[in-house]
Give the backbone structure.
Amino acid sequence: MSKLLELEDVTAPACCAPLSESSLGEDEAAELAAVFKALSDPVRLRLLNMIASAGGGEACVCDLTGSFDLTAPTISHHLKVLRKAGLIDGERRGTWVYYRAVPDRLTRLSGLFATPTT
C-alpha cells in the first residue's frame, strides 16, 4: 500500500517591489556617489539636516557653528563640501552667509529609493 505525500507550495513570493523606476547610468551613478560621499560624514549630515529644516528655509552660518564643537574654518570646510556636491547653496549678506538646501537635489536623492507609484 503506497501513501502519497501532500507537498506544500513553497514557491517564494516576490521579495519586494523595485526601488526605482529606472536603472542608473554610469555617469549618474558617479555623480550620486560623490553626493553620498559628501553625506557620509556625520557633521555634514547634521549640517544639511539643520539647513533643510531651518525656519524660513535657510540658516545663517552664525547659527550653525554653535551646534558643533568644531572651529569655524572646519564648519566652513564641511559647508563647502556640501555646496560642491550641489546639496546646498549660499548667499552672503554682509558678514554672514545664509545657506539653503537645494530642493531638486534632495528630491532626486529621496526618489532614488522611493517605490514607484502605479
The two ends are 54 Å apart (CA to CA). Residues 60 and 93 are 9 Å apart (CA to CA). The chain is about 45% helix and 10% strand. The chain has one domain: 26-111.
